[in-house]
Amino acid sequence: xxxxxxxxxxxxxxxxxxxxxxxxxxxxxxxxxxxxxxxxxxxxxxxxxxxxxxxxxxxxxxxxxxxxxxxxxxxxxxxxxxxxxxxxxxxxxxxxxxxxxxxxxxxxxxxxxxxxxxxxxxxxxxxxxxxxxxxxxxxxxxxxxxxxxxxxxxxxxxxxxxxxxxxxxxxxxxxxxxxxxxxxxxxxxxxxxxxxxxxxxxxxxxxxxxxxxxxxxxxxxxxxxxxxxxxxxxxxxxxxxxxxxxxxxxxxxxxxxxxxxxxxxxxxxxxxxxxxxxxxxxxxxxxxxxxxxxxxxxxxxxxxxxxxxxxxxxxxxxxxxxxxxxxxxxxxxxxxxxxxxxxxxxxxxxxxxxxxxxxxxxxxxxxxxxxxxxxxxxxxxxxxxxxxxxxxxxxxxxxxxxxxxxxxxxxxxxxxxxxxxxxxxxxxxxxxxxxxxxxxxxxxxxxxxxxxxxxxxxxxxxxxxxxxxxxxxxxxxxxxxxxxxxxxxxxxxxxxxxxxxxxxxxxxxxxxxxxxxxxxxxxxxxxxxxxxxxxxxxxxxxxxxxxxxxxxxxxxxxxxxxxxxxxx
Length: 568
Known about the structure:
By secondary structure, this protein is of the alpha+beta class. It folds into 3 domains: 4-343, Nucleotidyltransferase, domain 5 (2-Layer Sandwich); 350-413; 430-561, Alpha-Beta Plaits (2-Layer Sandwich). 43% of the residues lie in helices and 24% in strands. The protein has helices at residues 46-62, 93-104, 135-147, 158-169, 207-218, 222-231, 244-271, 291-299, 323-332, 345-380, 385-421, 430-443, 458-468, 502-515, 551-561; strands at 4-11, 15-24, 27-37, 71-75, 82-89, 112-122, 125-134, 154-156, 178-183, 188-194, 197-203, 278-282, 302-305, 448-457, 489-498, 519-529, 534-542. Strands 3-2-1-4-8 form a 5-stranded mixed sheet. α5 runs antiparallel to α7. The termini are far apart.
């Protein structure tokens, strides 16, 4: 019997990574690893990315790297995946999972394709990782694959794929806890593996952040900035030998170190995990010269590049590029502890039906054979009509029972699909969160960093005003909790920290914020002095209709001007 070929493809922003596994007797071997640059700028739009991806996939098909009989497993673009860590009482998972997903995913569940997987359990509590992608993104991926003449068996989450690849390289379980830093162009993830348990956090410092800082501060072209980062610096260089490029990259990487430190602290304090004994780096921006030494020195942790090929008899150049592609291929082969699939449920159902076509055809053949036999019996043995009819009835009953079982299974699948399709809306839009994070990161100077962004809806403000004004809402309004108005995002709570003189920075920052489309400036909520720096909280008012006024004021004015408004 020929070996089974399973392909994993990492859909990166700059590069597509390809790993082909050969599966024989459940033992995988590496057939080929390959990467292809998409030759896009860091600010390329979705249409340019789509066209470049299709061209690469078509070229791989023409080279017979991908053939129609191969199984294809892919990762969704990391910057398009929302990842959340959940903790739910094990006995309540079936009833509570969708409610928790509804709370955690900042966009209506009917607008996303999502899946979850249990990644650990202790004291009656299950730890889960939830991954969600907007439906239009998934539809775009499916359609571009179709345009290239391909179909994916599943869409994986890149961060989980990295964890799976690492666990496979460890023989299924890590002997000592480890943290994996995956730095991509458009997204970065920190994956902590403790035994078999994994925990994931998305970090705001990415390859794009690094390149953009050099472009902005040194007035270089994108090509010049990328070349300087890869060939002209060494993050481990001693003090006094720092070029301007190195200073900028080090400042950005220092922000990354702070995000990693914060994540490790949270993991230890909130989840009871031990600090990882080693840090492994991977991804397109893991090969910056001196990065491992820099991180090792700053974090006081043994740091090296991740190699998920160590259990295979194959040496792969730039091995740290391929953990995501490797992980989703291994998951497709059923060789990983965790499996997640963000493909729409109706597509998964259709794929299941395709697999069952043989059995459906076999059932139809059985039915036909039964009726042919009945006809022959009636024609040839007319004297035994009654006995043969009873026999035929029994056989028909068996066939009907088989068909009923198939229908029953299909109804169960349809019922589950309906449950998923009817999940109600959640509070805020993920688009807003992602856009705000990108816009704010562009205007922040190097001495200011973000530690979190929280969406605030009009309902949040309404409830606060209600409590502060003797149960009277803003302007004596009465707002239905189920209304779209109640869940509309109107403000962001931004947390962060800074070094330096805040009184000098704040007016400059205020002007920069007011230049961001959709922002109406900010007010300071809290300021706290730490040992060596300050932490702050800012209320940023949104101006989605771009009229120069905060949306919360527009809502109050519009509501109070309606002649039919209900008032207390």
